[in-house]
From TrEMBL, chains A, B:
Substrate binds at H49, D252, F308. This is Thiamine-monophosphate kinase. It holds the Pfam family AIRS_C. The keyword Magnesium applies. It comes from Hyphomonas jannaschiana VP2. Keywords: ATP-binding, Kinase, Magnesium, Metal-binding, Nucleotide-binding, Thiamine biosynthesis, Transferase. The gene is thiL.
Length: 311, 311
């Protein structure tokens, strides 16, 4: 089946926006809301970001969530998406149908409109890339660089579920409960954007490992940061230093890491409670530079390489 | 070398736009000009859209031009780009440096700002995807669907150069003059947007073969179209019907195909002459449906499959 047939059969039905001209034109019109529009792009590659035999519907959901994670971490609402799909001839059409259905479902659950894309053959392995736009709040984009000395460090959800799921799949334990978290990361709900707009001075998503990302947030803000390893909400409840560092250095958590003044602590907890968002205070910023991690009240030695980098 | 090192060493220097925060944030701000902003995405895959041993600087230029072609064919000016790069470990860092330099050079030659991207490992083969935004003219986006019965069909540049270059590379004739056109398609200059805004009723870029694309333009406008095969400006000057059909059915021309009323013919020719744009009138639209091709004053039989589809 050729590219044009794929588009009309599986992707055109996902498109509702008039600007997209049902994917029948070369370009799509972006919506132009008031206030800044932001954009991000994230790719997933077979054998790098997912296993070859991961179900394609979970790959579609992971693709969308990896991008949504970037947008909501900035206090912005996801708007419109363009998809690049490199599809190997070895994968049957039935998989493409399942992929497209899951993609459409996941996009609509976040209110995202698919407005364009490019589908192509791929000689080896499936690869995907999604460009996603988002609408910032009236206060503009929440950057990494806004944290202040004295601010507290917060994180949503749990850290390390993707690593536990990855290990399980690698070792053939497909029924492990963390497999779902590796394949379909659980993001903070969209309501996190309200909390961030109201309270956060700086934020980013945790996609390359909690500790390395915390260091990046501090560095962008010209500060030092201390992370309390006893406070971090580990998936699976790690207790040894080695396991805690492993979970806090692996990628694909897709949680939000943010800085907020101590004075808004109770407001954060109240908002999170109302909206059912799990948030945990895990550290604080100070003047200076660098990352310190503590456990049982003592500073721990950190390995040289903290961040997770695919490849 | 890890992903973050690549970005800071090779791609961050390409970024000038303040909204991109030098690629150090998760998202970039799109500019918000007055009038509609459009977007397109095009991917290139090793072994599908380019040969494994094509020089990487030509791959970078082809990637940009494939996207620019979509934008300028709509009468719009290219604005901002986000890059997805799947880089195989087998390609040395020196190639990445050359790729990035050519990409930066090509983007600036069109006035495009690189504002974001994602780089990842690729287990097999290089793949690339570029999302490009553009600013429409005050009259809005020139769609495929605006052609009127009686309009003339025009095309820029020459048709089939990419096929001649592809054949040469396939057969090992690397010194063939058409190889350059396959690797680095020659687009109409940016000034074509002024002509299109002023004169075109419908337009698209020729990327899947002239004849199939002409049929699509007519179909989107609810019309029939006749193409005069004697008038088409073939690269290399084809004279037999078989060769003409081959050149007019192969993809990757990246020329602009547009419809315009007969009354503006002299305006088109005058504008094109002033700006040094090659334009050729190659047919006309009428009521009805379907594509007719003529040669030596007689209708010719067309093969069932006209468009070129990668994969």
């Amino acid at each position: 089946m050729g590219e044009r047939d794929w588009i009309s059969r599986y992707f055109a039905p996902l498109v509702a926006s008039p600007g997209a001209a049902a994917l029948r034109d070369d370009v799509a019109e972006l919506s132009t809301p008031s206030g800044p529009v932001i954009a991000t792009v994230d790719a997933l590659v077979e054998g790098v970001h997912f296993f070859p035999d991961d179900p394609v519907d979970t790959i579609a959901r992971k693709l969308v969530r990896a991008n949504v994670s970037d947008i909501i971490a900035k206090g912005a609402r996801p708007l419109e998406a363009l998809l690049t799909l490199g599809w190997p001839g070895t994968r049957p059409e039935e998989q493409l149908a399942r992929f497209a259905a899951a993609l459409g479902d996941e996009l609509s659950s976040w209110g995202i409109r698919l407005i364009g894309g490019d589908t192509t053959a791929s000689p080896q392995g499936l690869f995907l890339s999604l460009t996603l736009t988002g609408q910032s709040g009236p206060g503009g984009v929440i950057r990494r660089s806004g944290a202040q000395a004295g601010d507290r460090l917060w994180v949503t959800g749990a850290i390390g579920a993707a690593l536990l799921g990855y290990r399980a799949l690698r070792d053939g334990r497909v029924d492990d409960p963390h497999v779902a978290a590796y394949r379909e990361p659980q993001l903070a709900p969209l309501a996190i954007t309200g909390l961030l707009r109201d309270c956060a001075t700086g934020s980013m998503d945790v996609s390359d490992g909690l500790l390395g990302d915390a260091r990046m947030l501090a560095e962008a803000s010209g500060l030092s940061v201390t992370v309390d390893l006893d406070a971090v909400p580990y998936a699976g409840g790690a207790s040894t230093l080695e396991e805690r560092l492993a979970l806090a250095s692996w990628g694909d958590d897709y949680q939000v890491l943010f800085a907020a003044p101590e004075s808004v602590t109770s407001r954060i907890l109240a908002y999170a409670g109302e909206e059912g968002i799990k948030v945990t205070q895990i550290g604080s910023f100070a003047s200076g530079a660098g990352l310190t991690a503590c456990m049982d009240g003592a500073r721990v030695n950190l390995p040289e390489r903290l961040g997770f980098e695919h490849g």
